[in-house]
Amino acid sequence: MPNHFHFLINANEYSCKEVPKPGIPVQYLTENIRLLLSSYTKGIQKQQGFKGNLFQQKTKAKPVSGSKNDYAFTAFNYIHQNPYKAMLVKKMEDWEFSSFRDYTGNRNGHLCNKRLAENLLDLDMKNFYETSYQVLPENDIKMIFD
Predict the structure, then answer these.
(1) Do 41 and 96 share a domain, yes or no?
(2) Pair (138, 101) in one structural domain
(3) Which of 30, 106, 144, 146 is least crowded, fewest Cβ atoms below 10 Å from its Cβ?
(4) What range does the domain containing 129 cover?
């Protein structure tokens, strides 16, 4: 998306542990996302020759569980449908910055763990493409942002 991005991350016990440093307690996953955004911002600032923020100060994160009828499954599909519904592309697989291409076999990426997603979200890979285009109920989408 031109002005935001989404990650659906499976956190493990280590990523949820607190970083051993003084100050406000922060988890490893949170700290590493902060470092990623900070490093990216510094690169863009250098490239574009500007100072200041690139991202909003508060990143939204929610713990989710993995079952076909819950938040994680809805979020997974919402993320893939986002550029399509925003009319940035004619088909979901046209958005080059999405893992949708990896799940459909149109790209052999290694950033996402397809087997883990299949297991956690109970994905039907034989019908993945068709079911990915199904309209998500409005109440389910609202659940993502509550």
Answers:
(1) no
(2) yes
(3) 146
(4) 71-145
Task: Note the pTM of the prediction, 2 decimals.
Answer: 0.82
CA distance 21 to 37: 20
- Residues 59/5, Cβ–Cβ less than 8 Å: no
Number of domains in the chain: 2
Q: Quick check: is 64 in a domain?
A: no
Single-letter amino acid code for the residue at 61? A
Spatial CA neighbour of 8 closest among 85, 70, 96: 70
Measure Cα distances from 7 to 15, 23, 59, 75 in Å: 15, 27, 11, 9
Residue by residue, pLDDT tens for the chain (146 residues) are 888 888 898 888 898 899 998 888 889 998 999 899 999 999 999 999 999 888 876 667 776 665 555 788 999 999 999 999 999 999 999 999 999 999 999 998 888 999 999 998 999 999 999 999 999 999 888 888 77
- Find, among 136, 3, 139, 12, the residue nearest to 80 by Cα: 136
